[in-house]
Amino acid sequence: MFAKLFLTMVSVSLLEIYVLIKVGGFLGAWPTVALVVVTAFVGSALVRSQGLQVLREFQQRIAQGELPGQQLIEGFMLLVTGVLLVTPGFVTDFLGLLILQPSIRSRVAKYILDNVQINSAMSGGFSQSSSGSTSGDNFKNKKSNDNIIEGEFERKDDNKD
Predict the structure, then answer these.
(1) 3-class DSSP state for residue 136?
(2) Of the candidates 42, 50, 97, which has an alpha carbon nearest to the alpha carbon of residue 76?
(3) Could you give one GO CC term from the UniProt record (predicted)?
(4) Domains held by the chain: number
(5) What whole-number distance in Å separates Cα of residue 70 and Cα of residue 82?
(6) What's the CA gap between 77 and 89, in Å, rounded?
(7) Domain span at residue 108?
């Protein structure tokens, strides 16, 4: 896992440097720097407005008594988008702008909901779902059918000095 993450980060960094050099050669150094700074500011403003929209949807779901699984995932995706847009470079800006599109973000969130089953923290956290359920029931609490026996105990030591 660490090797894949390291390889991905190195690859993206090298690609960013390559693209920045090419764009800098075409536009010049200062316009390239200005474009990178402008995309960071515009991107952060867009992420803020999209984040507020997702927060409103989250609150509506909670008010309706539903678990807002898709809104949680979209909120996390917006966090990642914010990091991508603030990171200097055009490749990460492009990826961030893709995720910023509500239609793309909702499709990715739905895919994640359909393919990853999330259990409660008490029963073990995250697990892969092999069923590929599209019902959206993955976030509902699953009650255990085990019989629970409640009782008390007292420790008695035989060796008392």
Answers:
(1) coil
(2) 50
(3) membrane
(4) 1
(5) 18
(6) 19
(7) 11-136
Query: Considering only CA atoms, which of 107, 105, 101, 100 is closest in space to residue 44?
Result: 100
Q: Which of 87, 97, 91, 95 is nearest to 46 (CA)?
A: 97
Q: Per residue in 19-73, pLDDT tens?
A: 999 999 999 989 999 998 998 888 888 888 888 888 888 888 888 888 788 888 8
Buried/exposed 90-119: b ≥16 CB within 10 Å, e otherwise: bbbbebbbebbeeeebeeebbebbbeebbe
d(CA 77, CA 39) in angstroms, rounded, equals: 18
Burial zone of 51 (CB within 10 Å; 0-12 exposed, 13-18 middle, 19+ buried): middle
Q: Is residue 114 domain-resident?
A: yes
Entry pTM: 0.62
Let me know if residue 145 belongs to a domain.
no
- Integer Cα distance of 140 and 67 in angstroms: 7
Helix ranges (H only) for 28-120 are 29-63, 69-86, 90-100, 102-115
SS3 category, 89: coil
Whole-angstrom Cα distance, residue 97 to residue 78?
10
